[in-house]
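User: structure tokens for this one?
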Amino acid sequence: MSIIGAEIIGTAILILLGDGVVAAVLLNHSKAQNSGWIVITFGWGMAVMVAVYCVGQFSGAHLNPAVTVGIWITGGIDGGDAIKYFIGEFVGAMLGAALVFLAYYQHFAATEDPGLKLAVFSTGPAIRNPAWNLVTEILGTMILLVGVLGITDPGNKGVGTAQLGGLLVGLLVLAIGLSLGGPTGYAINPARDLGPRIMHAILPIPGKGPSDWGYAWIPVVGPLIGGAIGAIIYNVAWPG
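Assistant:
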């Protein structure tokens, strides 16, 4: 399987399960409605785990442009491959969002609040302050990259293995969601936010409102900066 194909499939799985759990918790008449933040964070963590195990053997399962940037900085891939990863990640995120729309169509129609419908597809701040929202996304993604690179470091014998890596990265995303997700909804992934936000704007979602493009740059720029910082920390602090 090619890098692009693997990243499309993996990121589509990530978004289908990740945005799917948000839809389950937020939309009217869902059996999981109002089950809360813990369910959302666990759902996203397990979504990452499943997607990593599905396509990790083919592309390494970046599933996230910020991860791709970090691995590029550490020398794990070249610029040509990075572009392939970006294409796969954004296309996959859009595909996954479309599948969530199909799965929950009746519940979108039964939900009056357009803000809840947007929240299924993209993140938004609990307190809107662009500077501090950006800081939160930078910090969350920095920890993501330090964690991913540390878990998979060759010197981390017995932990960074193919058997455990996907599970541990999923738990890492769970930890970030529980600890740092409250202020912004923890995009920590430009494709995860921008791809579904585009689909929110395009899809015929009943009663939808605007796609909040004024905020959309934060969950793109913040994770890219945080991913780069995390990779630099890894390069400086880890031996070899």
